[in-house]
Fold each of these.
Amino acid sequence: MRKKKFSTETVNKMQIKLPAISVNEGMARAAVAAFCASLDPAALEIADIKCAVSEAVTNCIVHAYKNTSGVIYITVSLLKGRAVKIEIRDRGCGIPDIKQARMPLFTTDREDERSGMGFTVMESFCDKVSVRSKVGVGTTVTLYKQFVDRDT
Amino acid sequence: MSAAKDKKPGYDSEFMGCYLKIKLRGEIDHHSASSVRASIDSEIYQKRPRGLIMDMSAVNFMDSSGLGLIMGRYSVMNELGGEVIVTDPNPAIERIMTLAGMERLIKIQHTKQEFVRSAPKVKGRRSGAQTKKVKNTSEKG
């Protein structure tokens, strides 16, 4: 596993709050992608970001709030050196076993045809994923992505 | 028997011989997958096709909910003794399918080039007019 260090210096920041309803999955993707566009990422890099954000937001709706009402808090920080940090936070039920939740194909929701690939997708499409959670309090998923300099 | 095209929210369906072709549109995420799942299953059980073709040529985004949608349809078709073929996924979609190891169970085909060569000319006059335009604009040395 590659260990990459990301700058802590924030060049720009966006914070949005969205109701945890499935129709907002597309809105979350579009908002994050639009904000990251100022770093001029490649098409596939933006596709990676959109997919990872979609997974995290879907987890908030399906698992954290279990399709009841709630709010999803998304903070996008553009970091020095053409990198991005995206935090997706909820105040939902929390994850009892984070290690288990991150295992490929693991899902607690069999009825809705969940593939159990959410965290695997996030980890494949981002350079770093960190998860903090407390049962009964909520979860924060932080995604880091380094945009590659296309001149090299 | 002519293939009838039905337009439903989120996808078009076409029954061609023994195959049911579902052309999905736009973005496939948890929201859209939930809305089309029951409808697609209803068509499968009604028409009992030998195979289900999921045409992804008009899909510009898919996350793991789309993987769940495809795998769910695979389970249904498997129950009926049929197969699932996914056609024309874009590179990002094909990548997520490969990440899930889906190519071991489901055929992924890129058919667009074949369709261009073999597609019948339905509106012959229009194609003729287009051909003429190409001839007029070509430069002569």
Amino acid sequence: MMHQTPAHPITPPERRSPLLLPITPLETERRDGWEVVLEYEGEGEGPWLVDLSHRSRWDVQDRAIGEARPFGLAVPEEWGSARESDGLLINRMNRTQISIWHIGPGDAPRTRGSVDSTDTTDSHCWLAIVGFGTPRVMEALTSLDLFPPDRAGPRLTQGPVLHVPAQIVTFPDECVLIAVARGYGQTFAEAILHSAADLGIRPGGERAFSRWRDGRPG
Amino acid sequence: MTFRITCPVCGSRDVYEFTYGGHERGPRPAQEGLSAEEHFRWAQFRTTRAEAQEEWWYHGAGCGVWFSMWRNPATNREERPEPVDARGTGPTTEGDGE
């Protein structure tokens, strides 16, 4: 049987962020079915709350997870540690599980290597709090100690933020990534903006996150 | 009331992140010859000891792992009893329940 090319190009299915931030987008981009806000009106000087829910994420579970090579990358040995490589953040959750978040520029990789993984992109709300003052913002949101002085690289913490179970990755240079179950998304974001309003937090487009990512030393 | 619990994955955290799962009751009695009363006592009876006991906890607000630990309910401190050879009693299970 002959394989026929469809008469019309296939458009990706509509995918929607779990939250709508209360400010007018200045520039958006259509990406893999998502409407991605690149910049909002009057973003100010930060800190910013950035919706990254459209970016790819995976969970991997294996009895020998330490020996696995998802996307060809090594898994961090220590529980609670995170490693950034080739635009992916690999977070060691416990003895058998890791989560992988795409933070790099460009498209997420399609080849996952030899491991079985679960795509969790559409099941989470994923946010970044980025910019000067981020540690103070987090102090308003959780009693967790997210910035121990002996930590140089990114670190994974699993715990409550605004009483919501969350995976939190802290970078020492003014950025925190937070993933919670998708259903919390809208009210979670509203509560962050409300709780840290006096610290100047405002919604930021994806470029606010990209500027931080690309402007880091090293 | 508050105290801290050491999760085997996340470390020391506030007790309000956890759910209590009861004290360790040991394995279920063998089914053969098990009377209704014996089964009832194993399934339903709880002890309230003023000494260290092994307990199950669930880190629901964190990593989502079930684990067992030793705690003294009289002081809310984590403490293990004397080794088995010194007292004749001791831990029945070890480690996390992941």
